[in-house]
Design goal:
Elements: H1 14-23, H2 29-36, H3 40-49, H4 56-61
């Protein structure tokens, strides 16, 4: 049986926040979460707390 990958918990580091701000607007939340080693929900919630949104270009790309 495959082991489930451990996700980070706790406070966000400055480097994680920097990476989130750089990548979140133009990439899927799932991809950003995998890159950070955080859960989808934690990335989505933290980005929301920071007032971040997806770019119009990204939203058009996914058909929204």
């Amino acid at each position: 049986m495959a082991r489930k990958k451990e996700l980070k918990k706790g406070p966000w580091s400055r480097d994680e926040i920097k990476l989130l701000k750089k990548r979140f607007p133009g990439r899927s939340t799932e991809v950003v979460a995998a890159e950070l080693g955080r859960s989808y929900e934690s990335v989505k919630k933290y980005a929301s707390r920071l007032g971040m949104r997806k770019t119009k270009t990204y939203l058009r790309k996914i058909g929204r």
